[in-house]
Every structure is written in C-alpha cells, then in structure tokens.
Design a protein that fits this description.
This protein has eleven helices and nine strands. It is an alpha+beta fold and 334 residues long. The strands form two sheets. A seven-stranded mixed sheet has the order 1-4-5-9-8-7-6. Strands 2-3 form a two-stranded antiparallel ribbon. Helix 1 runs parallel beside helix 4. Bound molecules: adenosine-5'-[phenylalaninyl-phosphate] (FA5). The site of adenosine-5'-[phenylalaninyl-phosphate] (FA5) has 24 residues, from strand 5, strand 8, strand 9 and helix 10.
Length: 334
C-alpha cells in the first residue's frame, strides 16, 4: 500500500471496528512492525531523494502516523467507557451508604397517640374534625351566642368567608352528637388556633384533646374516674385529682381539674390540667340529645400542656419551631 492510499484505507477500516480486540488488530495492521505504515516506508528510497524532498516525505509519514495514533486512541477511550458500564447495575454497590438518621415521632403526636390508646381501652372512639369550622360549630352550638362575653375569652382568627380557625376542639361536640348519636364515648384530638400573644405557656397554634361521654346516668364520679385512669396510665404512677369550680357556657357545673403526682413537677404541688364539666342541657338539645334522658361529661385537655408535663418541656413554642435539636431529643423515647 502506498502512503497516499493508507489514509483512505485506514478511514474505512476504522469504521468497521466494533470492539477493543478489533481495534488492537487494526493498530498492529497499520502501526505494527510489519504494518502498512512500515511497509510504505520501506518502499521509499530515501537516499535517492534530495534533502528537501526527504524532509517533505518524512513529515508526511509523521503526519499520517500521528493521525492514525490519535484516531485509535480516541476510539479506544470510547470503546473502553462502553465496556466499563455495559454490564454493571444502575448503581455502584461499593459506594459508602448515605447516612440517614432514624426519624422519630414528634413528642406532641406521640402524646396524642398514647392518650388515644388509653381512651380506646376505655371504649372511646377517635373522631376527626376540621380545623376551619363554621362560627356556629365553634360558638353557637356550644352555647356561646353572638353577644356572649365568652367569645372574648378566645381570640379568634376569622376567615374571609365567615368561618373561623377553631379556637377549641369543643367545635366538634355538636357534630359528634349528630353524626355518632348516643350513647356516645368519643375523643377529638387536634390543632386549635388563637390570635393571642405568645409566651412559654401560650401558642397561637396548639393541640387540644376533647372528650365526650354521654349515656344514661353519667355523673361527675365517672368524669373523675376516667381522668384518674388516664393520668395514671400516662405518668405510670399514683395520681390525685381535684376539681375546682370553673366557668364555661357549655358545661354546668363546670370545673378546672388539677392533679398531683410524685413523678411530675415538684413537691406534690397541684398542677392545673384541664377544664371540664357536665354537658349543659342546651348543648345536648342542640345536638339532638334529650337532656331528660341522657347526661354526660366533656373535657378539653390541653394536649400541648400534657406533653410538656410528660417530657419536662419548659416552653410550648418549642413544639412548633421545627428545630431538629429539639425533636432529636425524643428519638430514643418511643
Ligand atoms: C377550652 O378551650 C374549652 N373548650 C375546654 C372545655 C371543653 C371545657 C369541654 C369544658 C368542657 P380553655 O380555653 O381553658 O378551654 O383551653 C383548654 C386548654 O387548652 C387549657 O387548659 C390549655 O391547656 C390549652 N390552651 C388554651 N389556650 C392555649 C394556648 N394559647 N397555648 C397552649 N395551650 C392552650
């Protein structure tokens, strides 16, 4: 093969190469000791050439050789990359794992789950409701008419359509009576909202857990027994409870329930836990329940407050901060 033919032949041969082995064979055929380039060179009688011509022919050889070398090196890289990835799985099993620390349940929700379990064991069901509710459900249905001063007790977020972000879970009392009927044993946990200044014990967004127990001849004694059982199960210790008078338009009589235990707080001091009371006859009637036949109690447990007591959390605002350093402290708890 003449030097002038090598270029075009090589081009055609290169197109046909489809493997690393074929490429190596091509390299030997063109660049090897007995290869096409060496053979073409042997055909040239350098001694018969004038110095100028000798230089020119030498340069031509070098140019062709460099071109062939570069083309082979380029294709080798392409074929090599293909071979390296062709039969491998889509991910590299030898890479070190990405460390993902185990997730955990938020202490508030963990408390909610625990309290739900305890109420389940006493035959209560969990009833879910909306956070945006009608003015009627939040106020009127629980005996707080439009001009009643009790509306001022709870600073309300009003929505443009006249609904409200529920200020308390009592907003579900009426629906529970109407949808579930009586006898009724149900709890309604969830977020509540109040447009109030925040501090260590007041948040604009917090959790309550409402409960209703309606049947024939339900009394304050049942209320005390249920609450004592709840608190003993939450704190795993002996508990004392006491009732003080409290005012809420939807209960009569109304109470504030306090408790004390050697494992919570200090020096067996009474801790104010939640308002409660016997459901007001007007509320029963509004829910379609005859107060002559049925009676019941209701309570509005501050779930955020209970979680604070359970875990020794000093500031209610920590729950909503989304600070992982806070949340991570509860990893091992559940
Ligand atoms: C009520 O909301 C009544 N609906 C409770 C009730 C239900 C009474 C059924 C009788 C019968 P109160 O506004 O006190 O009551 O709130 C109840 C509990 O929610 C409080 O004891 C407190 O633990 C919690 N709470 C109220 N406001 C906040 C707040 N801003 N931040 C955190 N917790 C709050």
């Amino acid at each position: 093969m003449q030097l002038s033919e090598i270029d075009s032949h090589f081009e055609a041969d290169l197109q046909a190469v489809d493997s690393a082995e074929a490429l190596e064979a091509l390299r030997i055929r063109y660049l090897g000791r007995g290869g096409a380039l060496a053979a073409a060179r042997d055909q040239v009688d350098f001694r018969s050439l004038a110095p100028e011509e000798r230089k020119e022919v030498g340069q031509t050889f070098n140019r062709v050789k460099t071109r062939i070398e570069e083309a082979i090196a380029g294709l080798k890289e392409t074929l090599g990359a293909g071979a390296a990835t062709k039969d491998l799985p889509a991910f590299d099993v030898t890479l070190p794992p990405v460390a993902r620390p185990p997730g955990t349940i938020h202490p508030l929700i963990a408390t909610q789950i625990q309290v739900e379990d305890i109420f389940h064991s006493m035959g209560f069901r969990v009833f879910q409701g909306d956070e945006a509710v009608s003015e009627y459900d939040n106020f009127d249905a629980v005996n707080i008419p439009g001009d009643h001063p009790a509306r001022e007790m709870q600073d309300t977020f009003w929505l443009e359509n006249g609904d409200v972000l529920r200020t308390h879970t009592s907003s579900m009392q009426n629906r529970a009576m109407r949808e579930l009927g009586v006898p009724l044993r149900a709890i309604f946990p969830g977020r509540c909202y109040r447009a109030e200044a925040t501090d260590a014990t007041h948040e604009n967004t917090f959790f309550q857990l409402e409960g209703m127990y309606i049947d024939r001849e339900v009394s304050v004694a049942n209320l005390i027994a249920v609450m004592k059982h709840l608190l003993m199960a939450v704190f795993q210790s002996e508990i004392d409870v006491r009732l003080r008078p409290g005012y809420f338009p939807f209960v009569e009589p109304g109470f504030e329930l306090d408790f004390r235990s050697s494992v919570v707080g200090d020096n067996l001091r009474w801790i104010e836990l939640m308002p409660c009371g016997m459901i007001h006859p007007a509320v029963l009637r509004e829910g379609g329940v005859d107060p002559e036949e049925y009676s019941g109690f209701a309570f509005g447990l501050g779930l955020s407050r209970l979680a604070m007591l359970k875990f020794g959390i000093p500031d209610v605002r920590l729950f909503n901060k989304g600070d992982l350093r806070f949340n991570e402290q509860f990893v091992a708890t559940f």
